[in-house]
Amino acid sequence: MVSSKNIKIFLNYWLGPLIFIWLSWSIYRQLSSQPDLTTTWQQMQETLRTEHAWKLIAVVVLMLANWGLEALKWRELLLPLHRISMVKAFKATLAGLAFAVNTPNRIGEYGGRVLYLPEGKRMASVSLTLIGSFSQVLVTLVVGTISLWIWYANYQSVDLPSHWNLQEIWVPALGWLLSFISGAAILLYFRISWVVRAAEKIPGAGKILPVLQVVDHLPVTILLRVLGWSVLRYAVFVIQYILLLQSFNVTDAIGVAAWLISLQFLIMAIIPTIALADIGIRGKLALELFGMISTNQLGIIAAALGIWLINLIGPAIVGSLLIIRIKLVGSGPVKEKK
Fold first, then answer.
1. Dist CA 90 CA 94 (whole Å)
2. What is the pLDDT of residues 25-60, one digit of tens each?
3. Alpha helix (H) ranges present in the chain?
4. Which domain holds residue 201?
5. In total, how many domains does the chain have?
6. 237 touches 265 (CB < 8 A)
7. How far from the centroid of its chain's Cα atoms is residue 202's Cα?
8. Does the keyword Membrane belong to this entry (predicted)?
9. What's the pLDDT tens digit per position in 145-186?
């Protein structure tokens, strides 16, 4: 029989490096399979030698703001459960991202973050992390729905690709459906206690109730602040994408670009995917949407791939390095190896 001591040695000194190797290999395989990666990388290097250089640098700086806001959201949600420093929240966010890149809709993110919390707080923190993700999806859904109605209002003036073959009736039908879902989601977000009440009535749900009860007592002030951080983070996403579209000479029309980006984010939020695999879907969707306003297909792909590399892959690699440094076993919070 394997002793508990051997298990602890494995978890503390072997699991982190193994996860890092697995994640690194997964990222390498995905990157090496991208046919336009070399051309895109060359174009990004050329951009650094032009007047657009500051825009590419700004996108990288905004990446830090992007994940910093996500860490701030998580720290805010944890307040009723456990106090954590901003530095540790940021590290936990990156570690969660390292797990997320290989899981559908980034569900592995929760497992990565809880490593930075004491054992008795980890399960309860998952429900709080879900609230943070819900707030971000809520913003994406609401803004995307508004963009869809803008599309409908200007339906005749939009040059749709011929192979879409959309009937005009489907645009308002989808708009009304998403409007209803958005309204219900907003109501549920501020009345999350209804979920707890419903769970209490499920037979055999007693084991999960302690995990949900921390959500039941979340103050509305925290929910509002978290929603505000989500709105700000969404704005950072959009600004990053616009800067890349301008850098690669796709379009300088900021309003139209923001509108199409919101539609893209809406569709990506609806489609189940794995973060490492979604670049193909993201690239194809970007070509369909931005192809309505630009014939620069390489620039469109470069912007989509650039935002993926800068916002997701780079931070995920840093997060996987952080995983190596953490000690998984113990009654207190995870400690970093010296």
1. 6
2. 654 555 565 555 566 666 666 766 777 778 888 999
3. 4-13, 15-32, 37-47, 53-78, 86-100, 109-113, 119-153, 170-190, 193-200, 209-216, 220-247, 254-270, 278-290, 297-308, 314-324
4. 4-336
5. 1
6. yes
7. 31
8. yes
9. 998 888 777 654 555 555 454 556 677 788 899 999 999 999
